[in-house]
Amino acid sequence: MARYEIVGGSTLEGNVTISGAKNAAVAILPAAILVEGKCRIENVPDISDVRILLDILADMGVQVEQPEPNVVILDSTTVSNPRPRGDLVRKMRASYYFMGSLLGRFGKAHVDLPGGCNFAARPIDQHIKGFLALGADVEETEEYVSMTPGEEGIHAARISLDMASVGATANLMIAAALIPGQTFIENAAKEPHIVDLANFLNTMGAHIYGAGTDTIKIRGVEKLTGGTYAIIPDQIEAGTYLAAVAAAGGNVLVQNVIPKHLECITSKLAEMGAKITEYDDAVRIQRTGRMRRTTVKTRPYPGFPTDMQAQVCVCMALASGVSRLTESVYETRFFGYCTELESMGANIQISGKTATVVGVENLYGATVSAHDLRAGAALVIAGLAAQGTTQVENIHFVERGYENLIEKLTGLGANIRRVED
Ligand code: EPU
Known about the structure:
Layout: E1 2-7, E2 12-17, H1 22-31, E3 38-42, H2 48-59, E4 63-68, E5 71-75, H3 86-89, H4 97-106, E6 109-112, H5 125-133, E7 136-140, E8 144-149, E9 158-160, H6 166-176, E10 182-186, H7 192-203, E11 207-209, E12 216-219, E13 227-230, H8 235-248, E14 250-255, H9 259-271, E15 275-278, E16 282-287, E17 295-297, H10 309-318, E18 322-326, H11 338-343, E19 347-351, E20 354-358, E21 367-369, H12 373-385, E22 389-393, H13 396-399, H14 405-411, E23 415-420
Parallel strand pairs: 2-14, 3-13, 9-10, 17-18, 21-22
Antiparallel strand pairs: 1-22, 1-23, 3-5, 4-5, 6-8, 7-8, 10-12, 11-12, 14-16, 15-16, 18-20, 19-20
This protein binds uridine-diphosphate-2(N-acetylglucosaminyl) butyric acid (EPU).
Uridine-diphosphate-2(N-acetylglucosaminyl) butyric acid binds at residues 23, 26, 93-94, 117, 120, 122-127, 163, 165-168, 189, 306-307, 329-330, 373-374, 401.
């Protein structure tokens, strides 16, 4: 078992370069099944979720090349085995995107139910509702989802989602790209990675309009034929480094970002007392004095992201005054890390969807365990800001989503190392 050992207390100084967006990459790679031709995808983060997807694709007969770091060339022309390997599918959440890509390309799909971070129930009923509307007969068991064409065949449809689900929006956009006619997704998610997926598919030859708004229109095309695409920078990775500086103090230029995507995060950190300076593709954060209390409510984009809830909670834990943090996407997310933060000296009371965080002067090193990806990132931040030594266990969760975390943090002067027991 590997763990991170962090000696806290140093401020963070220097530059850090943000990698490609995990949640865009994990949709774009399965979507490449639709493309009959070579697609070159750049700025692909080297994280374990991506490595699993590449293994699944290779096992299905997709030609996978990695000519240089962070570049993947996929050719799905000759998919010989359109059934993603169950043991790999169950290792991660985003493998549900194979449902959309296989339905779109072959008109049928058989995909095991995904695994991944289990911080909430995470149903996929909206994905299924959409596949049914697209004409699929769906068999859903506790182990898999299997789809075949229904009586009227697979066809375009107008789908109104009950909630703006990122996964359902992306899955249905992928499925509909090759379905003749016009499909509409209403109450669609608007996250940056939804727009990125649409841009990728359009670069490959799809006709998708309105991504980033409530309604996405997809005019099905006969074929996607390939091209070159670069994935956007990771909003949440950038937010995590910003929160780390806010918690530990220092002065860092976070490079290769789209500042607009970070406004929901930087505006809160500024309100708490950090100095934020935006450039064209970078954001500088400086934090010297103590942070001040604030109120945060997580919401779908452009609101404050649920994937930054745990990281901002660490900032609140060290701020002066009493902060309030309300989760409106995944209610049970607090349970992944609040108890661990309390063992480091934080004062947090949870009541339903809201955590009341009474700021303390210091956190103290302890042995803590990551229960999911973002919870793990928050514990790393807490370790950096704490006095003494922190051991973060279960780091495979963190490695699913943060490229070169140790190298990037040590580059900023942090004292962190990965230890294999
Ligand atoms: N929901 C349903 N039914 C569905 C789909 C969603 O009830 O069919 C509910 C969920 O339970 C949740 C809300 O709708 O309460 C939003 O879920 P969404 O579908 O948007 O989430 P997701 O697609 O499962 C993605 C990210 C998550 C991120 C959420 C919210 C990927 C692979 N995952 O999950 O990222 O938290 O959107 O932004 O894109 C992470 O990166 O650490 C992570 C967990």
